[in-house]
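pasting for the record
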Amino acid sequence: MNNTPNKLLKTALRYAAYLALLFVILFPLYWILTMSLKNFKDIIAYPPRFLFTPTFDNYRQILFNGGSFSDLQGIPEFLRYVINSSITTFSAVALGLVLGLPAAYVLGRENSKANDRIAGNFMSYRFAPELVVILPLYSIYKKIGFYDTFPGMILVHQLITLPLIIWIMRGFFREVPKEMEEAASMDGANHWVIFFRIMLPIVKSGIGSAMIISFVFSWNNLLFGLVMSGGATMPVTMGILQAMTFDQIKWGEMAASAVISSIPGIIIAIFAQRFLVKGLTMGAVK
């Protein structure tokens, strides 16, 4: 009986911590969404206005250049940035899978110090500051003509996608029992047949997880777009900053741009949620 008040207190504190964490996560999302629906006076009002008349002028400005769909003549500038990011990110993730899955398979199936060092070297690219490699790459890209080109942007984004895919998938390949490979080898299957016909179907949930995580990191990257792109390949992260002019910051348009740029990641996460949950929990319990 004496433990009942303590249990109630612990339960109350636990749920209070959950609510506080939920507030910390959701309030910035609520704030950016409401800011995108405010006019400039409501945005700069002090104290902040939580009750206001919503307006879609900010979305109309970035999607239709302030007019309507029928008034459009060509692709709006912000949508070009979204298309550029889509080309770069989807291609970078696809190339990362093509290169990373075989590498992760080799590094994951053989337990050796050499493989551990190689895998650690790949992951160190994610730990190292991007400026360490981006400035030399900028000089190289200018000389070979890769600056402000999609092939150049896709290659430089391999510094994001490839290490993540190798490191994540290496763990999934290590969880597959070696007896399955041995049985396939006894049936006459070579390494490529084992890889494509047996291993990849088994770790498909991990592939989904690696795709989502690498997509999010690649899509949200700012520095590569800042240094390695120009007008032809400028990504959406740089497009959001176009709301900052020399004399003002268009907070409403910036917020609307941020909301729109988050939609692809949300859609992919929703459709691939079952792969993400299964992939992140695979191997946690044996």
